[in-house]
């Protein structure tokens, strides 16, 4: 198998189109940087040779999914990428239901209220109700964060069988986000067990220094975790005890309400 093939292709899936996968690898290369990329840099990130990189980049440029600086010949993502995000957000029933609930939650707590969707070892922010004090990354949808070091992630893991939660942690990239990130698998599982007992997860400065977060899982009709509701605030404003006491009931209530709505949506669909 060459470096450009995937495990799916290796298994001989007759429906797998390798060229489509390579095109997406070109788009995903821009997740490694916040700057424009040259053809050689795209090749370095994707493992494609020079000729393939040029062909895929040119095609994506013609389609609008890449933009090119005619002076530097470097590429950046194009605006149609945002169209795909919009189509996803518009079609997701949970996001539609959660939007007014997250607005109410933010108004009730006066702090940042978020919804993230569960995706294997990470969650992805899809709703971010901001406060006046906000940092740039904290305002963007689409950001992935690990489940092992986040309040919402731990609440999600707590809804899984413990052996399954441990397997997720084992597959995770346990790199610290801050000096306070817990990366020992045993200690992480202890935090997951706490979330199971309490009904919510808590993280203190593990992804952003100066930030404290509580999170509770949203489950589907089968009781499987699909998302998490988070409330985040500054450690300069709250002690851990006061923050937990004030906001844990709110985040649990919102998550449970959304979980009930998922059961009703499923029943209507049947």
Task: Tell me what the structure shows.
The chain has 270 residues and is an alpha+beta fold. It has two domains: 7-78, Arc Repressor Mutant, subunit A (Orthogonal Bundle), CATH 1.10.10.10; 92-269, 2-Layer Sandwich (Beta-Lactamase), CATH 3.30.450.40. It is built from ten helices and eight strands. The chain has a six-stranded antiparallel sheet with strand order 5-4-3-8-7-6, with helices on both faces. The protein has a two-stranded antiparallel ribbon with strand order 1-2. α7 (151-157) packs across α9 (185-198) and α8 packs across α9. The protein is globular. It starts with 6 loop residues before the first helix and ends with a helix.
Name the features.
single chain; 270 residues; alpha+beta; Arc Repressor Mutant, subunit A; 2 domains; two-stranded antiparallel sheet; globular; disordered N terminus
Topology summary:
Elements lengths: L6 H4 L7 H11 L10 H8 L3 H14 L2 E3 L6 E3 L2 H12 L1 H17 L2 E8 L2 E8 L14 E3 L4 H7 L4 H10 L13 H14 L2 E4 L6 E9 L5 E10 L5 H30 L1
Antiparallel strand pairs: 1-2, 3-4, 3-8, 4-5, 6-7, 7-8
Helix pairs in contact: 2-3, 3-4, 6-10, 7-9, 8-9
Helix content, binned percent: 40-55%
Largest sheet: 6 strands, antiparallel
Rounded to the nearest angstrom, the distance between the terminal CA atoms is 44 Å
Low-confidence stretches: 1-6
Number of domains: 2
Count of DSSP-assigned helices: 10
What's the CATH topology name of the largest domain? Beta-Lactamase
Order of helices and strands: HHHHEEHHEEEHHHEEEH
Coarse morphology: globular
Strand ordering within the main sheet? 5-4-3-8-7-6
Going by CATH, the architecture of the largest domain would be 2-Layer Sandwich
- Identify the CATH class of the largest domain: Alpha Beta
Strand content: 15-25%
């Amino acid at each position: 198998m060459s470096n450009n093939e995937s495990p799916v292709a290796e298994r001989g899936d007759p429906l797998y189109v390798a060229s489509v996968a390579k095109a997406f690898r070109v788009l995903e290369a821009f997740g490694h940087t916040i700057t424009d990329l040259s053809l050689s840099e795209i090749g370095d990130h994707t493992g494609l040779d020079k000729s393939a990189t040029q062909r895929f980049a040119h095609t994506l440029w013609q389609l609008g999914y890449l933009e090119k600086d005619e002076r530097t010949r470097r590429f950046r993502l194009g605006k149609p990428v945002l169209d795909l995000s919009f189509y996803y957000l518009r079609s997701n029933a949970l996001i539609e239901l959660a939007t007014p609930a997250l607005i109410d939650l933010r108004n009730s707590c006066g702090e940042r209220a978020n919804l993230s969707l569960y995706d294997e070892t990470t969650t992805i922010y899809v709703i971010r109700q901001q406060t006046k004090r906000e940092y740039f990354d904290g305002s963007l949808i689409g950001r992935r964060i690990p489940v092992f070091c986040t309040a919402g992630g731990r609440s999600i893991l707590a809804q899984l069988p413990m052996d399954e939660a441990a397997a997720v942690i084992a597959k995770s990239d346990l790199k610290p986000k801050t000096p306070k990130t817990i990366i020992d698998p045993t200690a992480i599982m202890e935090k997951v067990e706490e979330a199971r007992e309490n009904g919510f997860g808590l993280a203190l400065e593990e992804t952003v220094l100066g930030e404290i977060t509580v999170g509770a899982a949203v489950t589907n009709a089968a009781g499987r975790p699909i998302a998490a509701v988070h409330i985040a605030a500054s450690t300069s404003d709250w002690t851990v005890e006061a923050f937990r006491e004030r906001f844990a009931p709110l985040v649990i209530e919102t998550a449970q309400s959304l979980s009930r709505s998922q059961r009703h949506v499923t029943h209507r669909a049947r």
